[in-house]
Design goal:
The chain is an alpha+beta fold. It contains 13 helices and 17 strands. The chain is 31% helix and 22% strand. Strands 6, 9, 10, 11, 12, 13, 14, 15, 16 and 17 form a 10-stranded mixed beta sheet that branches. The chain has a 5-stranded mixed beta sheet with strand order 2-1-5-4-3. Strands 7-8 form a two-stranded antiparallel sheet.
């Protein structure tokens, strides 16, 4: 689409305002709102000026002036705005060079797609994420100098079985989801089916095609809504919009949604398995006559993902909370291996269909707290490195990981056990990300510094509530 199409779309829908959306380094969406008369054809070239100095991980005071250039290729009317509002996604651009800002995540994704075409290996990479999330009735938390704690409320949670039937939530009707038994029940046990349907209808209105929705494994409102795959950039845009629709629809229902990977102790966390495939001249490149119907090119792509997995998760599982999900022996895919069936392996090859067009890889360690522009780009760059260097992924892991002896298990490498370890892996292994100037040394350095100073260090310095139970009387 071009600027004329976007302007016509705004006119046809009676837009009164423009909401210009962009993503900070960490992955949060932000927006500026302009009266619609401020949007003209020139703005798609010259952009809107804004101050980037207060955004997490972005520019310092002396280099804060940036431009937001609207992308006419992705637009929709805001389903939650009180006034008719056109939404456009923007790229952050350096006002002097007019090139994509080095710390703008969406610019990284655009460079990743450009580099893919430059290699000649493929012209399209498709991504299909399964972003799980929780919907709670309420969430409260505090971190003071003398007190810390959190409380999550969900009438669907098994802990609500004994609540009084005369509180504000109404009578206790007894339908609850037991721990780890929440996978696809029907209402009334699944209390959120109508809410997910409402989310799905809204997603369709904003241009995201929903394929399925269901309750997920954990108690207390864990959900999944699957939507149609698209290109790297298209899917990253869609995921940002998806999360926004989920949060706002839950808010309209008087509930709250979170994509935090591990909000509940002792139950499944929320992952974001990432299906991906390469295409060239409209032909799938991952289908072949090898193991699980894979081509050699697909096996090399797997080799690249496995080789660089420890560095990838610095972007794909990027929070301290992520590693409360990625724990060996539980549901998490921490084993650096691939398999057609084994869901404890980091890479699975879905076997639902023999159609070559549906042949894909599923990289399972990521979670929905990630910045999709950076995470998807890192996965693509690792896979391309595998293809360029013909990296052999070794033999598949088709045995049940829990049946392996300690001697067998020691030969299966694992993902890092903490965010700190994954950042160290990224420091040691990031040359593959710098190819084609897709990632910049500045971005990688800024990412590592921010995560250590703003997330790891504050958590490391703060007493944990569990420590009082373990050590208060020591």
């Amino acid at each position: 689409m071009d600027s004329k199409t976007a302007l016509k779309y705004a006119e046809d829908h009676g837009a009164k305002f423009l909401s210009l959306r962009f993503t900070d380094l960490i992955g949060a969406w932000h927006h500026l709102t302009f009266p619609i008369h401020e949007l003209d054809a020139g703005k798609f070239e010259d952009g809107f000026g804004f101050d980037a100095s207060s955004l997490r991980g972005w520019a310092s005071i002396h280099e804060s002036d940036m431009l937001l250039i609207p992308d006419p290729g992705r637009m929709w009317m805001d389903p939650f705005a009180g006034e008719d509002t056109l939404c456009l996604i923007a790229n952050a651009v350096d006002p002097i060079t007019k090139e994509g800002y080095g710390l703008d995540p969406r610019s990284v994704a655009r460079r990743a797609e450009s580099y893919l075409r430059f290699t000649g290996i493929a012209d399209i990479v498709n991504f299909g994420p399964e972003a799980e999330f929780f919907i709670f009735d309420s969430a409260s938390f505090h971190n003071d100098q003398n007190s810390a704690g959190y409380t999550l409320e969900s009438d669907e949670g098994h802990w609500s079985s004994g609540r009084a039937g005369d509180d504000v939530r109404g009578p206790n009707l007894g339908y609850r989801i037991r721990p780890k038994e929440g996978y696809v029940p029907v209402p009334p046990t699944d209390s959120l089916s109508d809410l997910r349907s409402e989310i799905s209808l809204t997603l369709e209105k904003v241009g995201i095609t929903v394929e399925c929705h269901h309750h997920e494994v954990a108690t207390a409102g864990q959900c999944e809504i699957d939507f149609r795959y698209s290109t790297l950039l298209g899917t990253a845009d869609n995921l940002q919009l998806f999360k926004n629709v989920v949060r706002n629809t839950a808010h309209q229902y008087g509930k709250t949604a979170t994509f935090m990977p591990k909000p509940i102790y002792g139950d499944n966390g929320s992952g974001m398995h990432c299906h991906q495939s390469l295409w060239k001249d409209e032909k799938p490149l991952f289908a072949g006559d090898g193991y699980a119907g894979l081509s050699d090119l697909a096996r090399w792509y797997i080799g690249g993902l496995l080789k660089h997995a420890a560095a990838i998760v610095a972007f794909a599982a990027p929070t301290t909370n992520s590693y409360k999900r990625l724990v060996p022996g539980f549901e998490a895919p921490v084993n650096l291996a691939y398999s057609a069936r084994n869901r404890s392996a980091a890479i699975r090859i879905p076997m639902f269909s023999q159609n070559p067009k549906l042949k894909r890889l599923e990289f399972r360690p990521p979670d929905p707290s990630c910045n999709p522009y950076l995470a998807f780009s890192a996965m693509l760059m690792a896979g391309l490195d595998g293809i360029q260097n013909r990296i052999d992924p070794g033999e598949p892991l088709d045995k049940d990981i829990y049946d392996l002896s300690p001697e067998q298990l020691k030969d299966v490498p694992s993902l890092p056990g903490s965010l700190d370890e994954s950042l160290k892996a990224l420091e040691a292994d990031h040359e593959f990300l710098l190819k084609g100037e897709v990632f910049t040394p500045l971005l990688i350095d800024r990412w590592i510094t921010y995560k250590r100073e703003k997330e790891i260090q504050p958590l490391r310095m703060r007493p944990h509530p569990l420590e009082f139970g373990m050590y208060f009387d020591i």
